[in-house]
Design a protein that fits this description.
single chain, alpha+beta
Length: 207
């Protein structure tokens, strides 16, 4: 409902086309619904799948007669659980103070620590905020990032199990930092985590 209202749409059959659903799933949800469990995001994808089947039922039946096309659940169910698992693990590593959104639960100790850190930058530390693409995932936790559309590399060294769920092509909107004389960068804050398929939409919509 929130997506439809903000997009100025009505709940009409013609509004539910592939481009709209792709933008909702690949861009809008990861950017706007940051604090969800894997189970919650799976339920959302399942609900979108059911709504589309209900509204576009005739079209889906026609498509089934032509060829076996994958459903929304087939395309995004497991993939979404994976990216939210990664995001949640990375947020724990960054000591994100928000534990839950519905109801809102904040770890006050982590909140005070984050607030204190935001008031001053760490000495001799370089920060980068960008949308990064995962270009390599090496055994042992070495992850190589590139800024989207650029060739400069940023190497992370992540702990188990977070790195096990990251895949080449994943898109991470984050703030990363590197201390003086350190080889590896660290994730300071995760803003959003996207599936690889989001890249083309980001280019088209300049997101």
């Amino acid at each position: 409902c929130e997506y439809i209202e903000k997009s100025g749409l009505d709940i009409r059959r013609e509004d539910f086309h592939k481009g709209l659903i792709d933008r909702l799933i690949l861009i809008w949800l990861p950017r706007n619904k940051k604090y969800l469990s894997e189970a919650e995001i799976y339920q959302i994808i399942y609900t979108i799948h059911d709504i589309c089947n209900y509204i576009c039922g005739e079209d889906i039946e026609e498509e089934k007669g032509k060829a076996e096309t994958p459903t929304i659940l087939d395309l995004y169910g497991e993939a979404y659980m994976r990216i939210y698992k990664v995001k949640n693990l990375l947020q724990k590593m960054t000591k994100d103070p928000v534990i839950s959104v519905d109801p809102i639960i904040v770890d006050l100790g982590k909140y005070r620590e984050k607030k204190k850190k935001s008031n001053y930058g760490e000495v001799a530390t370089t920060y980068e905020q960008a949308i990064f693409e995962v270009t390599e995932c090496k055994e042992g936790g070495q992850i190589v990032l590139n800024k989207l559309g650029q060739s400069k590399q940023y190497k992370l060294l992540l702990e188990y199990p977070a790195y096990k769920y990251i895949r080449k092509g994943d898109i991470i909107h984050a703030i990363i930092k590197r201390r003086l004389f350190y080889v590896y960068w660290e994730i300071e804050e995760i803003k959003a985590y996207y599936l690889p398929e989001a890249v083309e939409l980001m280019k088209v919509h300049s997101l």
